[in-house]
């Protein structure tokens, strides 16, 4: 099931001001149980889930697959980040996966995926953020 992507308001301004170089910057996905707010701007605005039991602060890299435009529409397509596996105990709860720029100063936010309900991974369970390889993560016209 594809989870909808919501972009942060500041992301649009950051694009216009050259903060993001999406084709070369390191983009990451982190996990949180607090609902992001559209007006959040940087990673420090978020409260990640507790570290340990399979989660490392900062999350996992979502490597670039494609970045380009066709007929005036720019599309960013990323690989799925590595899955999280609960080890040594439960991980979570989590309900939101946030995409951010780990290269740019302040680690500016891009957008997030909101899952229907909070998820707690039990020992050995896996959580995977599935990014849309066909349509891309985001498009700009």
Shape: globular
Mean pLDDT: 95
N-to-C series of helices and strands: EHEEEEEEEEE
Helix content: under 10%
Percent of residues in beta strands: 35-45%
Distance between the termini: 26 Å
Low-confidence stretches: none
Oligomeric state of this protein: single chain
How many domains comprise the coordinates?
Answer: 1
Count of helix runs:
1
**Rg of Cα set:** 15 Å
Structural class, by secondary structure, is mainly beta
Number of strands: 10
Major pleated sheet = 5 strands, antiparallel
Strand order of the largest sheet: 1-8-7-2-3
Short summary:
This protein is mostly beta strands and 141 residues long. It contains 1 helix and 10 strands.
How would you explain this protein's 3D organization?
By secondary structure, the chain is mainly β. The chain has one domain. Helix content is 6%, strand content 39%. The strands form three sheets. A five-stranded antiparallel beta sheet has the order 1-8-7-2-3. It starts with a strand and ends with a strand.
Furnish the topology, listing elements before pairings:
Layout: E1 5-7, H1 9-16, E2 27-32, E3 60-61, E4 64-70, E5 73-78, E6 84-85, E7 91-101, E8 109-121, E9 126-127, E10 138-140
Antiparallel strand pairs: 1-8, 2-3, 2-7, 4-5, 5-10, 6-9, 7-8
Properties at a glance:
single chain; 141 residues; mainly beta
